[in-house]
Amino acid sequence: MADKSMDGLNTFTAEVKQDVDTSRKLRVGIIGCGWIADSHIKAYLKQPDVEIVAGADLIPGKAAAFFAKYGVEGVKTDYASHKEMIDDKDLNLDVVSICTYNRQHAEPAIYALDHGINVLLEKPFTVTLDEAVEVIKAEKRSGKVLSIGFQPRLDANMQMIKKIVQSGELGKIYYIQTGGGRRRGIPTPFGTTFIEDKTAGLGALADIGCYSLDMVLNAVGYPKPLTVSGYKSAFFGTDPNYCGYRADKRAEYASKFGVDDFAAAFIRLEGDIILDFRISWAMNMDTPGDTIILGTKGGLRIPSTECWNGTVGGPMKIYHEVAGSQVETEIPVIKMKEGLFDLKIRTFLDACKNGTAAPVPSSQIIYNQAILDGIARSAECGHEVEINVPEI
Q1: Contact at 8 Å (CB) between 290 and 131?
Q2: Do both 37 and 116 map to the same domain?
Q3: 348, 5, 356: which is closest to 148 by C-alpha?
Q4: What is the 3-state secondary structure (H, E, C) of 40-73?
Q5: Is residue 119 within 8 Å of 148, Cβ to Cβ?
Q6: How far apart are the C-alpha atoms of 32 and 202, rounded to whole Å?
Q7: Burial class (CB in 10 A: 0-12, 13-18, 19+), 50
Q8: Residue 341: which of 307, 303, 306, 310 has the closest Cα?
Q9: Backbone angles phi, psi at 81, to 5 degrees
Q10: Does 267 share its domain with 327?
């Protein structure tokens, strides 16, 4: 028996309509001009209340070439570091997007916040929990907006997951299985930034694992993580015969691979919730499984995607009972009318202009980072570890 009607849960307004005040433009700088910065600049260029004024990259000439590619003129790029750019008082920066590699997330974020600049920090938050704590301390000192780059939060289907859970339709949540991944998808088309320990620090665990964790943690209200038993491996990335690498780069990339290409964990959360997690850049399987959220009144199945893309892989289903019969309610996929990156930039800018809360607050993502940190620590020592998030 299938119940197709579930009032209130099949309705959602995905389109965002608003008037943008252009009387004051926000002056934006971009730190790190690699491939993720492409998505940032494309979104900024669509905003009528933005003026892109500066960019910095550690590689000489890279920032200038980046802005030239997009035909953005008058941007200052003659900086050897993020500090030089932020220290340039003539810029009067309001906002920076930090698009650096993982191990360079914390330092520029702290420096920008301490200089009174709002920060949009790409995911993952940081590499370690200690780094994330220091960034939040700087955020609190500054009183500025710090938002973390989790644009899937803004997908209407992701918001529907939270709406279903928070409605009480599933009852008390006690078990979650989540993850995702790719059969062959180690991200090297952009070089070795993602796979070297000195730049990435973490691999699939942080790159796409942080998204998967956010999907379910946000739905259940971001309970505090307590303990974790974690595992990570790198069987594919370190294999010079890995077919996902360019044939002429296999030996080089395999020798440089210093992070995880697969990770799994068993996490205990406050509120007596168990989180069963697995994530992959490469494996001998098309998916590690759908996401499922089990509650005392019902269960929710969220179809996996081929490659983590910020939404759901098909219609979701609620498994529950109606009038003594076991039924399944299908939740149709909601088609978005706006790009998630555009929404990420717009909601961040609105928070900066209006002095409102960050769209993706650090107070939540600190728990996400604590889990990533805990998985890495547990995998290294080979046993369960406690997760202790300090009061900040």
Answers
A1: no
A2: yes
A3: 348
A4: HHHHHCCCCCEEEEEEECCCCCHHHHHHHHCCCC
A5: no
A6: 18
A7: buried
A8: 310
A9: -160, 170
A10: yes
